[in-house]
Amino acid sequence: MMAAAAIAAGCYDDLTSVYVPASPAGLSYQLEPSGDPLRPLGVILRWTASTDGNVASYNVYSRASQNASFGLRGTTTSPSFHDDGVPHLEYYVTAVSTDNGESDPSASIVVDERLRLPKPTTLTSISLNGAIHLQWSDNAFTSDPTGFSNYRVYSTSFDLDSNLCGVTWTLEGTTVGASFLVANIANGRPRCFAVSAVTIEGFESLWSPLRNDTPRPDGRNVIVFRDTVGATLSGFRFFLDANNDGLVSVGELGIVGAGSSTTMDFYLSRNANGTLFLVPQRTGTQVALYGNGAIDDLTSIDVAPVGGYSRTAVQAAVGNGYVFQMPSGGPFAVFGALRISAVGPDYVIFDWSYQTDPGNPELVRPLTPGR
To answer: Quick check: pTM over 0.70?
Structure first.
C-alpha cells in the first residue's frame, strides 16, 4: 500500500543534491463526535514533531476508499492536521525539507468505524428540583474497557401534547461513569435526553433509548452534595420548627442546607477512598441502618426500630434504608427515615419520611413535602 520503505534518517539525494527528510512517525487520529455517529465533525491527525532543522512542513495525503488513489489533502507546518467534515478512509504524512525534498510516507492510519461501541441499552431518570439525574446501562464500557473513552449526554425540549422530542439537541456534558446530573433546568419544562458512547479514537455510538422527564419541586427526590463540593447543600433536616409552636408548617419539612450548620440532622461526607457517608450532625440525632440491605421502597420502612441507633456515620448505598432518631424538645424522640435511590461521585438522592407525632414510631410520608 505504501510507495516505499520509510528512511530512518534524513539524507541528500545523490542525483539532485536535494535534502530528503526522514519519514514522520507516530501518526494517530482522533474523531470529533457530532451526535450523529455517521457524520463526525471532523478528524484530527497528530504525529511526532521532527527535530530535523531542515524540515519546513508536512504534507497530508488521504484516500476515500481502498480502491482510490492517495491525493494531497493539505500542508501544515505543525505536527497535526484538522480535516473538517466526514473523514476519508486512510491517511499518511510526509515531511518536506526547506529545499522541497519530500520524505517517504509515514505508516498510514485507517479510520475504522468497526471500532464503534454498542449504544447504551437503557436510560432512566429521576426528577429533581431544577435538575434531572440520568442513569444508564454500562454495556458500552464493559464491551471494550480499553477502547472506551466516555459517554456524551444530550438534551432537547419535549412536547407533552404530541409526545415528541425537539429537533435541536444540546450537549449537556461528558462523563466516564454511567450516570449524570443535568442541573440548572427550569422547573415545569419537560426535557428529552439521550446518551451515546465514544471510543478513544472518537467513534460515537448510536444513541440510547430516548427519555423524557420534567424537573419539579418535590420532597420525595431530594439531593444533597458532599460537604467539600456543595457546602451550602450538603446537610438535611427532617423538620425545623421555625415558629417554635410544635406545629408543622409549610416550608418546615425536608430542609436542605449547609452541612456545617448544627441545625442539620446530618450531612454528606466522603472519605479518602471515595466512599460517601451520612454523618449525624445535630446534637442528639442518631441513625440506624434499616434491615440488612437494600429495600424496595421508602414505604418498606413502616415502623422505626426499637434500638440500634448511633452517632456513627453510615455508608450511603443505593437502595438502603436508614432511620433517624432525633430529639423533639420534649420527653419523646421523633423519627425520620430515608431510602437512597442514587449515589453519584459527589452527591446522593433519596426519598424521606417523617413522623410528626413525638414518640410515635410509625413512619409515613408528610402530606406537605418541604422543598
So the answer is: no
Listed residue (148, 123, 127) closest to 135, CA to CA: 123
Contact in structure between 360 and 330 (CB atoms under 8 Å): no
Which residues lie below 8 Å from residue 211, measured CB to CB, with a gap of 6+? 123, 124, 125, 134, 192, 193, 194
pLDDT tens, 110-140? 998 888 999 999 999 987 878 899 999 999 9
Q: For residue 119, give the DSSP letter.
A: P
Q: How far apart are CA 282 and CA 237, in angstroms?
A: 9
Q: Within 13 Å of residue 56, how many CA atoms lie on the same side as its CB? A: 9
Of the CA atoms within 13 Å of residue 115, those in its CB half-sphere come to 17
pLDDT computed for residue 250 by the predictor:
62
Alpha-carbon span 241 to 358, nearest angstrom: 13
The rounded distance, in Å, linking the Cα atoms of 240 and 279 is: 18
Joined together, the cell numbers standing for residue 92 give 499518511
Alpha-carbon distance of 252 to 102, in angstroms, equals 77
- Closest Cα to residue 227, out of 277, 273, 175? 277
Cβ atoms of residues 317 and 290 within 8 Å: no
Residue (of 315, 312, 337) closest to 324 by Cα position: 337
pLDDT digit string, tens, across residues 14-38: 788 899 999 999 999 999 999 988 8
H/E element, 110: strand 109-110
Scanning the chain, the segments in alpha helix (DSSP H) are: 139-143
What are the grid coordinates assigned to 136, written together?
Answer: 444508564
| Three cell numbers written together for 309 | 441507633
365's grid cell = 410520608
Q: Assign 285 a pLDDT band (cuts: 50, 70, 90).
A: very high
The β-bridge partners of 96 are 57, 102
**Residue 215 to residues 126, 151, 230, 240, 365, Cα–Cα distance (Å):** 9, 22, 20, 25, 20
Per-residue buried b or exposed e for 112-151, using 16+ beta carbons within 10 Å of the residue's own CB: eeeebbebbeebebbbbbebbbbbbbbbbbeeeeebbbbb
